[in-house]
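sorry for the late reply, my laptop died twice this morning and i had to redo everyting from scratch. anyway the thing you sent over, i finally got around to it. pasting the sequence first so we're on the same page, its 130 residues, then the predicted structure underneath. double check i copied it right bc i was rushing
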Amino acid sequence: MTVKQPDHASPDCRAISSVLARVGDKWSVLIIVLLGDGSKRFNEIKRAVGGISQRMLTLTLRGLERDGLVTRTQFPTIPPRVDYELTDLGRSLWIAVEPLGAWAQGHVAHITKARAEFDEKINYFEKNIT
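ok and here's the structure:
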C-alpha cells in the first residue's frame, strides 16, 4: 500500500500554512490565551504579555483582527478607550490552545531542568573534546 504524500504547493496546504503561521508565532498564542479571560485594553495586554514592544503588539493585534480572531472596539471617550476581545472564531482557537498553555505552565520546571542539563553536557563536550 502506498501512502500519498501531501502536495505542499497545493492551495489547501498554502492556506493551512498561512493560518498556522499566524497562530504559531511567538506572540499570537499568548494573546489568544490572555484574551480567553475576556476583553482587555492595549496596555493591559502589553503588561500581561511582558517583553513585547508596542509596535509588535500592534502588528500582532492587527494580524489577529485581520484573521477574524480578535475584534477591536473603540469607545468615543476622552481619553480614547480601545478594547480587544476574542471573536467566536478566536474563542474556538482559545479552546484548542488553552490546554497547550496549561501544559507549558505545568511542565516549565521540567523543561528548564532539561535545558540546563543539556547545556551542561554540551559545555562539557566542547571543553573536553575540542
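The longest helix spans residues 88-129.
thats about all i looked at so far, will dig more tmrw
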